[in-house]
Amino acid sequence: MTKLFLVRHGQSQWNLENRFTGWQDVDITELGEQEAKQAGIALKDETVDVAFTSKLIRAQHTLKIILNETGKTDMPVIIDGALNERSYGMLEGLNKAETAEKYGAEQIHIWRRSFDIAPPGGESLKDTYDRVIPYFENFVQPQLQQHKNVLIVAHGNSLRALIMYLEHLSPEEILQREIATGEPLTYALDDQMNAVKLGKSLYIQPKTVV
């Protein structure tokens, strides 16, 4: 068995401000840093051989804190835009509540929670899946097949796409899955790359930063 660890980046500034972020390069908040440290504590006693992350600073900063906390700063790190968050196109930077007032809550819900309907100029979750999964199969899976434990620090929707693949979930099922910031998810994979989700790693919710 080999292990795959998935971590969504810590709270970003635009998470805090309730904005659509997507591909915008927004860093994590003080709370996000605390969440990353807690993820590092959760993973400290785990063996991790290689890490993957996106091209966006909020994921890279989270990974850096995790590696510092675990003492694994010399680990190989692979950065690729294939793991970026879903693009929200013309919605990026806009406040979610104000956007719902402009376009209607039902339309915003369709753009955010439909599997194959994209917001204007952006990506659907299906588009994100079609970007993430080939990358996983071609670059991450070979590491797992060499019995290396892998850490991926990425984003809510890129990880949602990966979880859909690993757990063989339907579009309806994956749309109901919420992924907490900074909370590691652990999967064990056999030699045929069949994945089993393990119990949650130790995680302590950081105190809210005022």
TrEMBL record:
<comment type="pathway">
    <text>Carbohydrate degradation; glycolysis; pyruvate from D-glyceraldehyde 3-phosphate: step 3/5.</text>
</comment>
<feature type="binding site">
    <location>
        <begin position="112"/>
        <end position="113"/>
    </location>
    <ligand>
        <name>substrate</name>
    </ligand>
</feature>
<feature type="binding site">
    <location>
        <begin position="156"/>
        <end position="157"/>
    </location>
    <ligand>
        <name>substrate</name>
    </ligand>
</feature>
<protein>
    <recommendedName>
        <fullName>2,3-bisphosphoglycerate-dependent phosphoglycerate mutase</fullName>
        <ecNumber>5.4.2.11</ecNumber>
    </recommendedName>
</protein>
<feature type="binding site">
    <location>
        <begin position="85"/>
        <end position="88"/>
    </location>
    <ligand>
        <name>substrate</name>
    </ligand>
</feature>
<dbReference type="GO" id="GO:0006094">
    <property type="term" value="P:gluconeogenesis"/>
</dbReference>
<dbReference type="GO" id="GO:0006096">
    <property type="term" value="P:glycolytic process"/>
</dbReference>
<dbReference type="InterPro" id="IPR001345">
    <property type="entry name" value="PG/BPGM_mutase_AS"/>
</dbReference>
<feature type="active site" description="Proton donor/acceptor">
    <location>
        <position position="85"/>
    </location>
</feature>
<feature type="binding site">
    <location>
        <begin position="21"/>
        <end position="22"/>
    </location>
    <ligand>
        <name>substrate</name>
    </ligand>
</feature>
<feature type="binding site">
    <location>
        <begin position="8"/>
        <end position="15"/>
    </location>
    <ligand>
        <name>substrate</name>
    </ligand>
</feature>
<keyword id="KW-0324">Glycolysis</keyword>
<keyword id="KW-0312">Gluconeogenesis</keyword>
<feature type="binding site">
    <location>
        <position position="58"/>
    </location>
    <ligand>
        <name>substrate</name>
    </ligand>
</feature>
<feature type="site" description="Transition state stabilizer">
    <location>
        <position position="155"/>
    </location>
</feature>
<dbReference type="InterPro" id="IPR005952">
    <property type="entry name" value="Phosphogly_mut1"/>
</dbReference>
<dbReference type="InterPro" id="IPR029033">
    <property type="entry name" value="His_PPase_superfam"/>
</dbReference>
<dbReference type="GO" id="GO:0004619">
    <property type="term" value="F:phosphoglycerate mutase activity"/>
</dbReference>
<feature type="active site" description="Tele-phosphohistidine intermediate">
    <location>
        <position position="9"/>
    </location>
</feature>
<dbReference type="InterPro" id="IPR013078">
    <property type="entry name" value="His_Pase_superF_clade-1"/>
</dbReference>
<comment type="function">
    <text>Catalyzes the interconversion of 2-phosphoglycerate and 3-phosphoglycerate.</text>
</comment>
<dbReference type="Pfam" id="PF00300">
    <property type="entry name" value="His_Phos_1"/>
</dbReference>
<keyword id="KW-0413">Isomerase</keyword>
<comment type="similarity">
    <text>Belongs to the phosphoglycerate mutase family. BPG-dependent PGAM subfamily.</text>
</comment>
<feature type="binding site">
    <location>
        <position position="96"/>
    </location>
    <ligand>
        <name>substrate</name>
    </ligand>
</feature>
